[in-house]
Design goal:
The chain is α/β, with parallel strands linked by helices. The chain has two domains: 265 residues, FAD/NAD(P)-binding domain; 103 residues, 3-Layer(bba) Sandwich (FAD/NAD(P)-binding domain), CATH 3.50.50.60. Strands 1, 2, 5, 6, 7, 8, 19 and 20 form an eight-stranded mixed sheet that branches. A five-stranded parallel sheet has the order 10-17-11-12-13. Strands 14-15-16 form a three-stranded antiparallel sheet, with no helix packed on it. A hairpin with a 4-residue loop joins strand 6 and strand 7. Pfam families: FAD_binding_3. GO terms for molecular function: FAD binding. This is FAD binding domain-containing protein. InterPro entries: FAD-bd, FAD/NAD-bd_sf.
Length: 433
């Protein structure tokens, strides 16, 4: 039973502040084309790629090439701003960073910029220092990521490239883009997750948008399909714009939770639940703890909007079809009409299938076959994965920023050991609790 519900004003942090004192950093390398060879290629420069590049820098590995379609973390913050999201779900202790090395952490960075924070934001820092749940403003997180990019010289090692293929061999990895090929001794895939597409037969033409597409203005009646935090932002934004909102949730009730993953899985003992258990047991745990949920801060506003009739929630109603018009047909025969339907159907973890040969992935139940000590593909030990791809090794937290830290520690240690011809140190590579 939850007796305390945080107030929605925690969701209203300022966006777009000027952060004095940040080191100037290029968004991309000076040259248009990356070098033809490198020690390490990182595919993806989001928060996971940022963590890996920072960790390798601390290991003394500087011959690194990052490849991404956008600047470091550009797509991450672009999607966040499309949702008008103002705070992270992850608390202050979850941030791109390096395990085992002294570095400026997110909480340190926020405290150094105390004068720029609102009273609400300052109180969240006090909560974090006391060991309680805290909420991080997107503005603070983006400035911190820019600090990491500058202090670890990441921007100057990033090239705007679209990775097409990753082709491993016995002694190297060839990473092909639209314009060139980079040959490296190791590659790290930080591919993230992609939106889950609508089922076949759903109409996705005019009047229907996915959560990561720009929203047309002026809709009087909006239908939101989905039960997670992304759907909550869509509902909140539509209500703020004055629309009548119909919210379709397949479950019988909304699931509110502080973090997107049960906090036990952020601790070594939680991750140890995956160590040594059968594949079937891991699938069961992933199915149980990878369910959509919403931050508690949304609940008071949604309850108020529902009581006022501005929000109509269709609980326990699965969608049968979305038709032109816009009309949403539910499985019980109910039809909900509107001006705009917004789809927040979740995301699908990358297995590397976008770039790696199928025989390398050796997928089982949709998950890549990874070495649990190094997070390398077992059939391509020079290619590693960080992010949701490692879910069946690290558990549900793999997709979270804190899960990136755990994965990065293993991957960076393994890559450093391979490059420097030294043994893999167990306590840096693996933690079994």
């Amino acid at each position: 039973m939850i007796s305390f519900v945080p107030e929605p004003h925690l969701l209203g942090s300022v966006r777009g502040r000027d952060w004095p004192g940040l080191l100037p950093s290029p968004a991309f390398a000076d040259s248009a084309v990356p070098p033809r060879s490198a020690d390490v290629v990182i595919a993806g420069a989001g928060p996971a790629g940022l963590a890996v590049a920072s960790a390798l820098w601390h290991h003394g590995i500087r011959d690194v090439v990052l490849l991404d379609r956008d600047r470091p973390c550009g797509r991450f913050f672009g999607r966040i701003d499309l949702l008008r999201q103002r705070v992270l779900r992850s608390p202050y202790e979850h941030h791109p960073g390096v395990e085992g090395f002294r570095d400026c952490e997110l909480l340190d960075f926020a405290r150094m910029h105390w004068s720029l924070l609102s009273p609400v934001e300052r109180n969240e820092i006090r909560m974090a220092q006391a060991g309680h749940r805290s909420v991080v403003p997107i503005d603070v997180f983006e400035a911190y990521c820019e600090h990491l990019v500058a202090s670890h010289h990441i921007g100057e090692r990033t090239w705007r490239q679209n990775v097409r293929d990753v082709l491993p061999s016995a002694d190297s990895v060839s990473v092909r883009t639209d314009t060139t090929t980079v040959t490296a001794r190791f590659a790290v895939l930080c591919m993230g997750e992609s939106r889950r597409e609508a089922p076949d037969g759903w109409w996705t033409g005019d009047g229907v948008r996915y959560w990561d597409q720009p929203m047309p203005p002026g809709a009087g009646r909006v239908i939101v399909i989905g039960a997670g935090l992304t759907a909550a932002h869509l509902v909140s934004n539509a209500l703020a714009d004055g629309a009548e909102v119909h919210w379709v949730i397949r479950e019988t009730e909304e699931r509110y939770q502080c973090a997107d993953v049960n906090s036990k899985f952020f601790r070594p003992e939680g991750r140890a639940r995956f160590d040594g258990v059968s594949w079937e047991d891991r699938l069961t745990l992933m199915g149980r703890f990878r369910r959509a949920s919403i931050m508690f801060e949304f609940r008071p506003g949604f309850q108020r909007a529902e009581a006022e009739g501005r929000l109509i929630v269709h609980r326990g109603r699965a969608v049968k079809a979305v038709s032109s018009g816009v009309s949403v047909e539910l499985e019980d025969g109910t039809r909900v009409g509107g001006d705009l339907a917004l789809l927040a159907l979740g995301t699908t973890p990358s297995t590397g299938s976008e770039v790696l040969p199928d025989e390398v992935i050796n997928a089982r139940d949709g998950w890549a076959d990874l070495d649990e000590r190094t997070l390398a593909y077992r059939l391509a030990p020079r290619v590693h994965a960080v992010g949701a791809t490692a879910g069946m090794v690290l558990g549900p937290a793999a997709r979270n920023i804190d899960g990136h830290r755990v994965a990065t520690a293993r991957v960076a240690a393994a890559v450093a050991a391979g490059l420097l011809d030294r043994p893999l140190v167990p306590d840096l590579a693996v933690s079994r609790g």
